């Protein structure tokens, strides 16, 4: 069963946990392993953080996700200046920023960029899904007081 959703979010960090929750719960419900969910959420968090920081004059950015039987595709689109270039190595340790794209590349199977200078960037993340052998593990439930 395919599952798709799209969100238009304010360019504020407060929306990032919402994206993580919706996407993470959707993947977990479909039996995707925790490590695979973690990889996807790390990459999506990095892309959303970049959209919030560099999204330009527009006050919104968009997240579109499609979860299929064996793959997850996520697109994060902002209306910023556009990515100048993809870095080919990590910055020095004393630099605080600049690792996001390289982190994304390390945890997803494919990453691509649709860059329109002056009009925005779309980051497209793709990851093959690893699933549990059996049904998804049950979530712990809180017991009612007797």
Helix and strand arrangement:
Elements: E1 3-10, H1 16-29, H2 34-54, E2 60-67, E3 71-78, H3 100-107, E4 110-116, E5 120-128
Antiparallel strand pairs: 1-2, 2-3, 3-5, 4-5
Helix pairs in contact: 1-2, 2-3
The count of helical stretches stands at 3
Strand order of the largest sheet: 1-2-3-5-4
Q: Would you identify the CATH H-level superfamily? A: Histidine kinase-like ATPase, C-terminal domain
Distance from N terminus to C terminus (CA atoms, Å) equals 39 Å
- Just give the CATH class: Alpha Beta
Principal-axis shape equals globular
Total beta strands: 5
Beta content comes to 25-35%
How does this structure look, described?
The chain is α+β, with helices and mostly antiparallel strands and 146 residues long. The protein is 29% helix and 27% strand. Strands 1-2-3-5-4 form a five-stranded antiparallel sheet, covered by helices on one side. Strand 2 (60-67) and strand 3 (71-78) form a beta hairpin. The model has no long low-confidence stretch (mean pLDDT 85). GO terms for molecular function: protein serine/threonine kinase activity. Keywords: Kinase, Serine/threonine-protein kinase, Transferase. This is Histidine kinase/HSP90-like ATPase domain-containing protein.
Structure summary:
Helix content is 29%, strand content 27%. It is an alpha+beta fold and 146 residues long.
């Amino acid at each position: 069963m395919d599952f798709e959703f799209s969100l238009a979010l304010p360019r504020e960090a407060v929306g990032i946990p919402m994206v993580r929750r919706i996407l993470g719960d959707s993947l977990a419900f479909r039996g995707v392993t925790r490590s695979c969910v973690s990889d996807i959420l790390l990459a999506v968090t990095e892309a959303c953080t970049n959209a919030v920081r560099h999204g330009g004059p527009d006050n919104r950015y968009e997240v579109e996700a499609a979860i299929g039987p064996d793959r997850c595709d996520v697109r994060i689109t902002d209306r910023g200046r556009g990515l100048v270039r993809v870095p080919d190595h990590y910055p020095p340790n004393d630099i605080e920023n600049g690792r996001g794209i390289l982190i994304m590349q390390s945890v997803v199977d494919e990453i691509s960029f649709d860059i329109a200078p002056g009009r925005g960037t779309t980051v497209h993340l793709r990851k093959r899904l690893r699933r549990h052998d059996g049904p998804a593990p049950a979530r712990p439930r809180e017991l009612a007081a007797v």
